[in-house]
Specification:
By secondary structure, the protein is an alpha/beta fold. The protein folds into two domains: 266 residues, Glycogen Phosphorylase B (Rossmann fold, 3-Layer(aba) Sandwich), CATH 3.40.50; 190 residues, Glycogen Phosphorylase B (Rossmann fold, 3-Layer(aba) Sandwich). Helices cover 37% and strands 19% of the residues. It is built from 19 helices and 18 strands. The chain has a nine-stranded mixed sheet with strand order 3-4-5-2-1-6-7-11-12, with helices on both faces. The longest helix is centred in the last third of the chain and has 20 residues. The chain is globular and about 65 Å long.
Length: 484
């Protein structure tokens, strides 16, 4: 059994902006079930504090002349001990974890997450006298990147893992921020935190962690290439022997159509014919023509270029000529929100756009959809295609990252050998997307074939069971590397 400090800037259900929140909300619980002694660490945002009960302050300290207390609670719905770094000056504010209510990045993000990392390092080293010392420190994304760098300065330290959930977000700040944060001078060089005369938080993880993971095998290979490496591909190539792709799992209790309390009609792989009642309920809810034979395409996503919004918008006029309906839920870049909303007004009987995020609606969209749109430009892992497979909503996706590792195209041979579970675009273009939708609609008209594709989808096991085992094995490798 290892003592693991799992550090994240978000964790569902306390706070979530994307896939990182889902992973941090479920992987620690899976590791605990496998006998690991784990602590989850995240900032004490107001949203997080409002969702915990039976909390207590277990330590007090200060960094950057700011008072900090450590609050202990349980992650709701689990038995995972959760520590929250409470610094009201930096974390008690409206808006999101990283941006304000107007969509702008917080001006002091470098300070906010540097303080978070200092507290994490001290907790890992038992410097706050909590009588608990980490064997493994598992960091996630740039907000935690300084932790491996700070721990590298100590001769006796835990082994460190750094997980990249999306390399596009790096935590880049100007050089002055390095000096303002009083970081050790020994960390400022091109093989340290310096990145083209700027401070890079993510390099703290990529340079100093004992092992690096990312969230699918294909994405691990992609980020070592120039076109996907965001200037860090050389460093990742250099560390290739310590870089591993481990596919994310999903919380299969929270995402389970057989027990999902958000649904109009529960169903499972043995009762797939009941799934259609969720479609007709959604059609009624949004005043779409109620017809169970019309294919419904769903999408729950951040509305950003990465998710393929450009090619979706390009082909909506052609899609609207087909006998189908589309429902999209998400929030993101204003120009995408506005264009989609205008199109929804133009095609009220075929296109429903809900701007914002709503957990209940997300589940209802997954269950109601026959097909799920996910034509991403890049996708480190992707969780929505995993939810869709579990809900027998067949993904229409690009052959990138975790999509390539989980969606098997409905070619004749894959249909015959019963491995097909979705549709892969030939390329990232509106033309290819339209072709994939047409192929999906063609097979949808063949009930026996379609049901077999749904069965293939629901037979996939994407629980955390396997992935958690991979992480435990990796933790052992990291400990051995550090010792060596």
């Amino acid at each position: 059994m290892n003592n693991i400090l799992y550090i994240s800037s978000e964790a569902f259900p306390l706070v979530k902006t994307g896939g990182l929140g889902d992973v941090a909300g479920s992987l620690p619980a899976a590791l605990k079930k496998k006998g690991q002694n784990i602590r989850l660490l995240l900032p004490a945002y107001p949203e997080a504090l409002s969702k915990i009960s039976k909390s207590k302050v277990i330590a007090e300290t200060s960094y950057y002349n700011q008072s900090v207390s450590i609050i202990e609670a349980k992650l709701p719905g689990t038995n995972v001990t959760t520590w929250l770094i409470n610094c009201p000056t930096l974390f008690d504010r409206p808006g999101g974890p990283y941006i304000d209510e107007h969509g702008h990045e917080w001006h002091d993000n470098a300070l906010r997450f540097a303080l978070f990392c200092h507290a994490a390092a001290d907790l890992a080293l038992n410097r706050l006298q909590l009588d608990w010392q980490a064997d493994i420190v598992h960091c996630n994304d740039w907000q935690t990147g300084l932790v491996p760098a700070l721990l590298s300065l100590h001769k006796i330290r835990p082994a460190t893992i750094f997980t990249i959930h999306n390399l596009a977000y790096q935590g880049i700040f100007d050089q002055q921020a390095f000096y303002d944060l009083h970081l050790p001078a020994s960390l400022w060089h091109m093989d340290g935190l310096e990145f083209y005369n700027q401070l890079s938080f993510i390099k703290g993880g990529l340079v100093y962690a004992d092992k690096i993971t990312t969230v699918s095998q294909t994405y691990a290979a992609e980020i070592c290439q120039e076109e996907n490496g965001y200037g860090l591909n050389g460093l990742l190539q250099h560390r290739k022997k310590d870089l591993l792709g481990i596919l994310n799992g999903i919380d299969d209790k929270h995402w389970n159509p057989g027990t999902d309390h958000h649904l109009e009609q529960k169903y499972n792989r043995r009762s797939l014919d009941k799934k259609v009642f969720n479609k007709t309920a959604l059609q009624k809810k949004f005043n779409l023509p109620e017809n169970e034979t019309i294919p419904l395409l769903g999408m729950v996503s951040r509305l950003v270029e990465q998710k393929g919004l450009d090619i979706i918008l390009q082909c909506i006029p052609e899609l609207m000529k087909l006998k189908l309906q589309i429902v999209i839920l998400g929030t993101g870049e204003l120009h995408y929100e506005m264009q989609l909303s205008e199109l929804a007004e133009k095609y009220p009987d075929k296109l429903i756009i809900k701007i914002g995020y709503n957990e209940k609606l997300a589940h209802q969209f997954e269950a109601a959809s026959d097909m799920y749109l996910m034509p991403s430009r890049f996708e480190p892992c992707g969780l929505n295609q995993l939810y869709s497979l579990r809900y027998a909503s067949l993904p229409i996706a690009t052959h990138v990252g975790g999509l390539a590792d989980t969606v098997v195209h409905a070619s004749d041979s894959n249909i015959k050998n019963k491995t097909a579970n979705g549709f892969i675009l030939e390329e990232h273009s509106a033309k290819a997307l339209l072709k994939a939708v047409r192929q999906a609609m063609h097979l949808y008209q063949q009930p026996d074939v379609w049901k077999q594709l749904q069965q293939n989808a629901t037979n996939c096991d994407h629980s955390w069971e396997n992935s958690a085992e991979h992480y435990i094995h990796l933790y052992q490798q990291a400990l051995e590397k550090k010792t060596a």
